[in-house]
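Tokens in:
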């Protein structure tokens, strides 16, 4: 049986409106083999009063990444 599942997780910093989004997709090739991919996307907050407010998560915007995963269960 083949099974595909998609997930979305997100965090919003209310002080500076910065955010982290983590979409993932998992695909089951068989009962033993699973493949997946996803991303960590850091988004800075908007500019206010002519000043840049990156916030907690926005400070990591250069560390946004994509990943691929594989799992073999026995």
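Residues out:
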């Amino acid at each position: 049986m083949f099974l595909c599942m998609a997930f979305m997780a997100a965090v919003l910093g209310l002080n500076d409106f910065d955010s982290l989004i983590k979409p993932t997709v998992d695909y089951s090739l068989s009962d033993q083999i699973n493949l997946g991919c996803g991303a960590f996307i850091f988004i800075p907050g908007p500019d206010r009063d002519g000043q840049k407010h990156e916030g907690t998560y926005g400070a990591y915007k250069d560390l946004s990444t994509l990943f691929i995963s594989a799992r073999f269960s026995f």
